């Protein structure tokens, strides 16, 4: 399976990618651990089957200090003992916000209540924005068949300049 188009070498694709990167920079300004943001992006990318994004967020999570056990267990976080209640709330939000078509309720009131227990409004805005943006990035990757395995940590910063 070969990539269909390289969005980074296409003028419009590169412009859109830079904007997505800019949104991610704004999200990272909020007081949430980078490792948590990477785990959320990783889980959404796993659900959506985006090999490129799984590669990116696995490596970025490791670079942010995440352990191999937590990175590997994020796919089965409900059956794992390595995540805090706050992290579980964020992961539930990520899953429900990604699987909108799979559930008639979208994000449940129960999950929203758990998120409200652990995060302030700015942090919630960052989580919701991250979930939306990574879902968009996953669609770009899956539609164009971007393959995982070649990401070098930090390469987005170099591409955005």
Automatic annotation (TrEMBL):
Gene3D superfamilies: AhpD-like (1.20.1290.10). SUPFAM superfamilies: AhpD-like (SSF69118). The keyword Oxidoreductase applies. One of its GO terms (molecular function) is peroxiredoxin activity. InterPro entries: AhpD-like, AhpD_core, CMD-like. Residues 27-96 form the Carboxymuconolactone decarboxylase-like domain. Keywords: Oxidoreductase, Peroxidase. This is AhpD family alkylhydroperoxidase. It comes from Saccharopolyspora antimicrobica.
């Amino acid at each position: 399976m070969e990539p269909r188009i390289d969005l980074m070498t296409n003028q419009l694709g590169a412009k859109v990618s830079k904007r997505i990167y800019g949104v991610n920079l704004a999200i990272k300004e909020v007081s949430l651990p980078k490792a948590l943001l990477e785990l959320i992006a990783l889980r959404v990318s796993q659900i959506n089957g985006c090999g490129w994004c799984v590669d990116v967020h696995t490596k970025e999570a490791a670079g942010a200090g995440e352990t191999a056990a937590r990175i590997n267990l994020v796919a089965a976080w409900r059956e794992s003992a390595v995540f805090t209640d706050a992290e579980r709330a964020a992961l539930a939000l990520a899953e429900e916000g990604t699987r909108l078509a799979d559930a008639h309720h979208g994000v449940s009131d129960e999950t929203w209540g758990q998120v409200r227990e652990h995060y302030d409004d700015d942090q919630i805005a960052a989580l919701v924005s991250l979930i939306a943006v990574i879902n968009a990035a996953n669609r770009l990757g899956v539609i164009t068949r971007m393959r995982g395995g070649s990401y070098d940590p930090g390469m987005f910063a170099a591409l955005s300049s």
